[in-house]
Amino acid sequence: MAKLIHAKINDIPVEVNEGTTILEAAKSVQIKIPTLCKHPDLPPSASCGICIVRVKGSNKMLRACCTPLEEKMEITTHDPEIVAIRKSVIELILSNHPNDCLTCGRNGNCELQKLVADFGITEEYFPKIKRDLPKDDSTKAIILEPEKCILCGRCTYVCQDMQDVWALSFLQRGIKTRFSPAGDIQLSESPCIKCGQCAAHCPTGAILEYYDVPKAWAALQNPDKYCVVQIAPAVRASIGEAFGYPGKNFTGKLYSLLRRLGFKAVFDTNFAADVTIMEEASELKERLLEGRKPLPLITTCCPSWVDFMEKFHTDMIDNFSSCKSPHEILGVLSKTYYAQKNKIDPSKIVMVSIMPCTSKKYEIGRCDEMHASGYQDVDIVLTTRELAGMIKQAGIDFINLPDSEPDSILGDYSGAAVIFGATGGVMEAAVRTANYLITGKELPKVDLEAVRGLEKVKEAELEIAGKKIRVAVAHGMANVEYVLNKVREAKKAGKELPYHFIEVMACPGGCVGGGGQPYMVTDEVRMMRAKVLYEDDKGKAERCSHQNPYVKQLYKEFLEKPLSEKSEKLLHTTYKGVPVYRK
Asked: Which end of the chain is more exposed for a tag (fewer CB within 10 A), N or C?
C-alpha cells in the first residue's frame, strides 16, 4: 500500500500518495499552478520555470511539475513575488516569439497565448530577438515553424521516446537553440512517419497539420465538381469537444452538417471498415488454414505504422496485410461502384476524408495503388481540427442540427466497424468475422474485452474451430518493438510463434488519440472517446462486418467475393522497404 504524504498547500491540508508532485497535489485541492512545458502525457521537463512555488523554511523556489510533495511541506503557490516572476518568464518567452497570433493556426487555442491573457500582459518589456528560421512544409502532412518554438521539449520527447521515431531534435545551444529534424534536414527526408503526435502535444503553433481547408472550399464551390465526403470512426467521438460537448456521439449531426457544407453525398468510413474486415479476416483464414503466406498477420489500417514498417521493419513485409486502409477503400469505391450505380463521371468526383489523423494526408499519395480507380482515390484529407474550423467559418449551429442518415450505399455500418477508432478495435472486429468465415457460426459473445483499454501491449488467446489463436495489440510506436522481437526470436529459435494476429496503431489510444484530433488529449480523454465508440457498437443491430447487408450487396453486385481478382486490384496494395533507414 502506498505511503500517504500529509502537507499544506496555501494552508489547505493535502493528503496524497508518496511520489505525487506538488503540481498534481495542488490540482487535487482545486489549485491550478500555471505551466507551459508540462503535458499530462509526458514526464516533466521543468524547462519553462513558470510553475515555481515557495516552500516554507526554504529560500529556494521549486518547480512544482517535477518536485514530489514531502511530509509536512507547507507550499505557497501564489503570492506577489511568485506571480511577478512568472510574468517575467512569460515576457522573456515573448521576446523570442513572433507577434503573428492573428494569422497563426493556433490562434485562440494556444497555451502561450492563454497564459499571456491570464497574466494580463499587454506590452512587451524586453527587446525583441528576431530569429529568421524557415518554415518546413515538405511532407505536406506536418508543418514545422521553428520561430514559434518555446523550447518546451514536448515534441522531441514524443518523437523520440513515445514514438521511437527520432525525427526531431534540438540543435545548437544557448539563445540559438532550436528544434529541427535530426541532422538539420527537411522533415520529408527524416524518419518522420507523419503521425502528428508532435503537433498534438505542441503548446504553440510551432508544429501544425498541413492546412487543406482552402482546397476543400474551392472544390465545394466549383460547380463542375461532384464533392463527396466520408467521416472516420474517431471523428464522431471528438468533434463535440471543439464546441464544448466532450464525450458525445455526433454521428447524425455530422451527416447533416456535411450536407449543409455542400457535399452531394455523405458516406461513412465505417462502411469501408466493414469491407476491410471482410478482406483482412479472409487473409487471416487463408494464412491459418492454407499457409500460403506466413503468420502472424499484421494489420495495416494505420499509414504511420505502414511508413514505420517500410523504414525500419522491412523483414515483416510478408506478414503485412495487403488490404488498404478503410478511407482509401471508400475512396476507390466512390469512384467505381458508386459512380457506376449513379451514372456519375468519376473524373468529376472529389472525395474528401475527415480523419483524426495527419498521416492520412501522406497516405493518399503513398503509391500508385492509391489511384486504383483510374484517378486519385482520395483527393483531400481534413483533420478533425480542420473540420471544426470549417464549421465555425460556415456559421452553422452544429450542436443544434437535426440528426440525419448517411447515403446508405456507402454509409451503413456494423458495430464492428465503429470500434476501429480505438486501440484493439481492428483486432476485435476481425476476430468476430474470422470466426464466422472459418466456422460458419457466430461468436456467442462478440466483445473481446482482453484487447480493450490503454495498456501499452495487450495479449490474448481465443479459440476458433478448436485451434488456439494468440493475438497482440500494440499502440504508440515505441511499444511495437517488443511484439515484433518476440516474433523474430521465436522464428530464429524455431519455436512456435507467440502470435497469429497483430494489430498496431501508431498513436497512443489508437485513432481516438490521433495527431489530428482536438488538442490536450490525455488518457482520460482517450478513454472517454473510446467509450463513445463502444457504446455505438453495442447499439447496433449488426455487430459484425459480415452481417452488414450493404457490404453483402457490394460483393454480390461488384466485388464478387473477398480476395477476388477485382478486390485485389481495387482494395489491396503492396509495400517496399526504404533501405536508407536502419536503427
From this structure: N
Residue (of 358, 369, 353) closest to 271 by Cα position: 353
Catalytic member of 138, 321, 334, 359: 321
74 included as an active-site residue:
no
| 357 labelled catalytic | no
Q: What is the 3-state secondary structure (H, E, C) of 26-91?
A: HHHCCCCCCCCCCCCCCCCCCCCCCCEEEECCCCCEEECCCCECCCCCEEECCCHHHHHHHHHHHH
For 460, the grid coordinates are: 490474448
User: Where do the structural domains in the chain lie, given as residue ranges?
Assistant: 4-78, 94-209, 227-571
- Our answer to whether residue 24 is catalytic in this structure is no
511 classed as catalytic: yes
Rounded Cα distance between 494 and 243, Å, is: 55
pTM of the model: 0.95
Series of mean pLDDT values for 10-residue runs along the chain (583 residues)? 91 96 97 96 93 94 96 96 96 94 95 96 90 94 96 96 95 90 93 97 97 98 98 98 97 98 98 98 94 91 96 94 97 98 97 98 95 97 98 97 95 97 97 96 94 96 92 96 96 95 97 97 97 98 97 97 97 88 53
CA of residue 445 relative to chain centroid, distance: 29
363 catalytically annotated = yes
CATH-assigned architecture of domain 227-571: 3-Layer(aba) Sandwich (3.40)
376-416: pLDDT as tens digits: 999 999 999 999 999 999 999 999 999 999 998 999 999 99
Specify whether 48 is catalytic. Answer: no
Q: What angle do CA 162, 63, 478 make, to 5 degrees?
A: 5
369 as an active site residue: the answer is yes
d(CA 223, CA 536): 36
Calpha distance 169→182 (Å, rounded): 5
Domains 94-209 and 227-571 share a fold: no
Tell me which of 148, 285, 360, 458 is the catalytic residue: 360
Residue 13 C-alpha cell reads as 491540508
Candidates 24, 369, 455, 542; catalytic one: 369
pLDDT digits (tens, 9 = 90+) for 114-136: 999 999 999 988 998 888 899 99
Annotated catalytic residue 343: no
Q: Which of 283, 328, 386, 503 is catalytic?
A: 283
By residue count, the chain amounts to 583
- Domain 94-209: assigned CATH number: 3.30.70.20
